[in-house]
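stage 2 :: seqdesign
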């Protein structure tokens, strides 16, 4: 068995950002037009009038102030309210591949590695843009990596599940190094006409390079001390989009073919589960919660993160202990906790213990204990 380290991380941030105010302005223009177009039916009580959204509510309920997006114009157009990402020919790299490669190149550079040092690619994300060939194999080709690649999806927890998968392969000697990437175009599956959720997601891609400890030469190494995963079935976060939709014409275009959630219930269910899993995981590794210098948590909702760390520490966490990136990135699904990790790791002292944790649809929860080398 080999010891495993994370030797580099990378981040791709789209060029455009949308503020809450811009998003709400577009949403409210849609609401206004809908209510005019349906005035007679609303008057007869056949159609329910829509209610405006509010930037103040969004920030207060979620902590989100803005989000980066792959296409701003299409999302903000009240006639469209979806990103416009034109089709590409099969000879061009796909959007997900392009984002993944940008993040991966940064991770390779930080690790001081080239494609020749890597034996595998895992693309782990919530939304894969096609059925096949696997995006991971396309990324492998784009970077010139020899070996194997596969895609996996465990929604917002895809990165921690990907890390466990990559770490186990390296431990067993099946690969020297594996690149685990999380390209997330969350705006592609977000219903921008749904007041309850139109503000939740943003787009980004992250990359984590995992290597055999005895081969790694990077200045930015974290030992993978242990990983622990948990899944338990729930319908409170669901998206019914899929290849069988065409076999059930009655459902085509229905709202359930995009992201749908019961936010309050998710909040109530998930927070205790995450705190419990991280607590048990630390205990299994003879570590106290007070030993943990940093929690890089999934970035969905600020109050959720406050509550989870408070349950663990028995007090409020400082921003240094539990860094926040959702204020400017919103929820980027599997990329969120890795963005927090990528942006807030260099100041940690040698030997510091830290936890990377994800949680989301499934439910799926992951905890990765790391130690700075
Ligand atoms: N603008 C203004 N008001 C809004 C609104 C909007 N965009 N959306 C909802 N509201 C209103 C509701 O109508 C409700 O009004 P009422 O009290 O008069 O009925 C009130 O605000 C509270 O709505 P609720 O949906 O209960 O808000 P919340 O406090 O639960 O916050 C979330 C909503 C989504 C931010 C929050 O539940 C959450 O983040 N949950 C966890 C989600 C999560 O992590 N998901 C994982 C996805 S991977």
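stage 2 :: out
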């Amino acid at each position: 068995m080999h010891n495993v380290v994370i030797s580099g991380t990378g981040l791709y941030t789209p060029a455009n950002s949308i503020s809450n105010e811009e998003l709400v302005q577009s949403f409210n223009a849609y609401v206004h037009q809908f209510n005019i177009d349906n005035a007679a039916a609303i008057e007869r009580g056949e159609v329910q009038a829509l209610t405006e959204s509010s930037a103040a509510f969004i920030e207060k309920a979620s902590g989100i102030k803005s989000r980066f997006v792959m296409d701003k114009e299409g999302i903000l157009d009240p006639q469209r309210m979806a990103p416009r990402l034109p089709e590409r020919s099969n000879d061009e790299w796909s959007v997900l591949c392009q984002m993944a490669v940008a993040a991966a190149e940064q991770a390779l550079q930080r690790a001081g590695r080239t494609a020749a040092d890597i034996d595998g690619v895992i693309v782990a994300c919530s939304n894969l843009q096609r059925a096949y060939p696997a995006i991971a194999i396309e990324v492998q080709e784009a970077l010139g990596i020899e070996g194997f690649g596969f895609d996996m999806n465990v929604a917002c927890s895809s990165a921690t599940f990907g890390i466990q998968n990559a770490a186990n392969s390296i431990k067993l000697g099946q690969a020297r190094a594996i690149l685990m990437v999380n390209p997330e175009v969350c705006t592609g599956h977000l219903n921008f006409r749904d007041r309850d959720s139109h503000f939740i997601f943003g787009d980004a891609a992250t990359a984590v390079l995992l290597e055999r400890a005895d081969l790694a030469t990077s200045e930015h190494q974290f030992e993978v001390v242990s990983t622990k995963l948990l899944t338990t079935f729930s319908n409170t976060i669901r998206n019914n989009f899929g290849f069988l939709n065409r076999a059930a014409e009655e459902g085509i275009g229905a709202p359930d073919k995009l992201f749908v959630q019961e936010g309050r219930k998710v909040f109530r269910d998930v927070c205790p589960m995450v705190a419990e899993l991280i607590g048990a995981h630390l205990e299994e590794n003879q570590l106290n919660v007070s030993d943990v210098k940093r929690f890089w948590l999934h970035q969905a909702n600020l109050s959720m993160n406050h509550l989870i760390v408070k349950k663990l520490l028995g007090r409020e966490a400082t921003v240094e202990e539990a860094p926040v990136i959702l204020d400017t990135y919103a929820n980027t699904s599997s990329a969120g906790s890795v963005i927090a990790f990528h942006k807030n790791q260099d100041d940690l002292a040698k030997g510091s213990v830290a936890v990377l944790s994800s949680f989301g649809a499934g439910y799926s929860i992951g905890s990765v204990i790391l130690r700075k080398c």
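stage 3 :: structure notes
- The mean pLDDT is 97.
- Residues 222-372 form a domain with the Peroxisomal Thiolase; Chain A, domain 1 fold (CATH 3.40.47.10).
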